[in-house]
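Why run this: before we spend reagent on co-expression, it is cheaper to look at a predicted model of the complex and decide which construct boundaries make sense. The entries below are exactly what would go into the expression plan.
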Amino acid sequence: MSYSNEIRPPSASALSFSTTTTLSAATTTSISSSTIASSRGQQAVALLPSYLADARAVETYHPVDAPNGALQLGVAESKLVEERLVSKINQLAQQHTFSADCIYYQPTAGRPSFRQAMAGYIQDMIQLPAACGSLNTEGLVVGAGCNAVLENLCFALAEPGDSVLIPTPYYAAFEFDLVARAGLQVQPVNTFEHSGADISTATVPVEAYYPTAAALDAAYDQAPAKAKILLLSHPHNPLGIAFPPHVVQECIDWCRAKGVHLISDEIYAGSVYRPDSANFVSALELASQPTNKGGLGLGPYVHWVYSLSKDFALSGLRVGVAYSENPDIRMPMQKLNDMCQISSQTQILVEGMMTAKEDDGKQWTSAFRAEHQARLRARGDRLQSLLHEFDIPHLPATCGLFCWMDLSQFLPLADNSNSNANAERERSLYLSLVNEYGLLFTPGLSMRNERPGFFRCVFSAAHDDEFDLALMRLRTFLTSQKS
Amino acid sequence: MSYSNEIRPPSASALSFSTTTTLSAATTTSISSSTIASSRGQQAVALLPSYLADARAVETYHPVDAPNGALQLGVAESKLVEERLVSKINQLAQQHTFSADCIYYQPTAGRPSFRQAMAGYIQDMIQLPAACGSLNTEGLVVGAGCNAVLENLCFALAEPGDSVLIPTPYYAAFEFDLVARAGLQVQPVNTFEHSGADISTATVPVEAYYPTAAALDAAYDQAPAKAKILLLSHPHNPLGIAFPPHVVQECIDWCRAKGVHLISDEIYAGSVYRPDSANFVSALELASQPTNKGGLGLGPYVHWVYSLSKDFALSGLRVGVAYSENPDIRMPMQKLNDMCQISSQTQILVEGMMTAKEDDGKQWTSAFRAEHQARLRARGDRLQSLLHEFDIPHLPATCGLFCWMDLSQFLPLADNSNSNANAERERSLYLSLVNEYGLLFTPGLSMRNERPGFFRCVFSAAHDDEFDLALMRLRTFLTSQKS
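The model came back. Tokens follow.
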């Protein structure tokens, strides 16, 4: 449960940045020239989230050693399916012994049989209608994590200095993933003003977060360099919802009209635990225009990434997937993947997992997914019941591992003499939650949220007893604040 | 035995390049603007070796399906220890079951216990004297292959556009690894003229290949941008020898005086199969200046990379290592490694391999290494006996998987009207070896050799029966040419 500075950060930006800052390696903190190192290496480190330094400074919970330590609800992981996964992995590892061909160099894009199994799994997971066609495995690359394949996709699509549009709030480690080596500039897409939603009410409605063509146009015009990519998180991290099909379709249409590449990051596509209200439809389905050429007919501007780190809670195995039907980037994607290949041993293991059947003949992954979703739903319900009880505004969570909570009513009063007031007010509330109530959430401004005082709760990040304790502590916090 | 275009290339440059060309992504072939993709992605692909297209066009050997197909002696792999590795891996996989902590995010630099085991293995392999101190595991990063950790080391040490010096001939995939994403420019270091060796004789003496301070000075002055890195292959690919300690020491001293970073790529350090004549001493030993601060006292300018792909023939597992004691690059190296982490499953497996003991209490890796070296020695001896028999100049191979053969006497006559004559003559001989004699070697100009007609034979790349056949075919070739 310890949260060292080694762990991949759940979000990667400093609270002290304003939400409209455009980020690039070239514009971040200037580096001391006394270091015997490159400035780009130093700048990459500077892209990592500074609020984590606060998190690291606190003692984290341990039932015996630190019963008053802070509970980790900020790392986007699921601890709900540990026993199922560990037993399955050990069973598969016994069944799938290592054969001689596995020790040698593998195809850089991944073992063909593994890519085939992955394509089948994806189609099943997103319930792709047969009319859309089938994934073309030639366009599918497996690499060491979603960040690795996403980075290579960006290398293949955009030049250094080009802008990438990302609707706010967003998973802030995107800034490290896209800026540190690929050299893109992140242009946040602020949605509130262009959404048409009434944001004057106490509760920001979910529609306010939808990226409309108007919001995309504004960000496109505002970008410091040509915008080449729009990156969507779908289902959404940190919002815990899916954009309705018409919103994603508007993004697809806008991208095709503008000649901008859409990357749909669907890393939570298997964690849609309230499918009816979520109304999640994959961009692969929405963008499909089947032809007799095979594949889904996505055209050159629609791309897709995924990994096993969230739906499968297997972040330690580093298994990411990128998919594209753009013939011009196939070779670059496959070749650049040479730098982030997955161990053949793990390719075999995961292929076994994706093709395993239950006793009733159904896919093991389907049964696993259903169980995980049921556990996520139970956790999400418990958290939201508490929030309802205290009238705390939050988005109705339907997907992913998160609930997006508006705690802005608990912010300290603004000090108008301070131009950076919102960041300081949010940090103050964040530190109070951590230090006084032992609750580690992800602060919203670190994810470029448009307003201060919003927090992401990863309700799957703790084991059962810790989650029970977290709810008790949150109740204590809310009671004290409301009284 | 099939050699698809998917396999990591053994060398990565086009025969049509001259040996003095300076390479960078910015200066390679211009790309059609009609592609819906980035130019840098297209240029990355253009860095891959064009001579492989010739290799791909031929049928490769199969005992039943293609008995006249070409034998693959060009991919730098060892097939000599397959049965030992596969049985050990399967044994270890049964012993080391997957525990719950392995499924989640790991420290980006690698699991601490694995890095500790790797440090111990390295010290044992290079026989590091106790007086040098011990590796500091904080400076050790494990990532998905030597190329991946080498690239990140370069990101941390140099800016885009900086030059990297590499003595010729060199493993030509360095051009892909260092140029494609890190954006360095490769400046070959030609050694013949500055070596002081007599190169007018029929046989180029081994001393002609030693990088002297004079050769480094010349390359440094010639580099198109500031040279920030000197990359040494030690033991040497493709030469199959180790530079004597005084040569490596001269490089270390030159680098420290110039403020240039030395990276010693010692990926073949465990394949020194004739230790007495090789006289291999690791740069970690030569650069060591122990202090009471811990580590080896390498200072900020000496760095080291390694992997399990060669000595262990485990290229499929993608296990690379970088080591540095420069405090300014520790964080960048660890954080950038987030993009190329090794599966926790494979970290556990390899940690088990590195700590396994034989029945006699000795390290399993030591016994394995001794057996691999004996087999390499036997292969190398058989090849060199044949070369001796026909008086074919070659370097006396002592390390690695290679013999560096001078077949220039068999080049077609020069056509002085053609400015690119040498490249065409070598390609002609290469194609003749492939098509008429069924022998796939790596052509020397693809590795930036200073003279045409040299070839690298990877004598470990074939199984026993194929190697027998390769020697028969080579005898046929030599007989026909000499008669």
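The domain at 99-355 of chain B is CATH 3.40.640.10 (Aspartate Aminotransferase; domain 2). Chain B has two domains: 25-82+366-482, 99-355. Bring this page to Monday's planning discussion.
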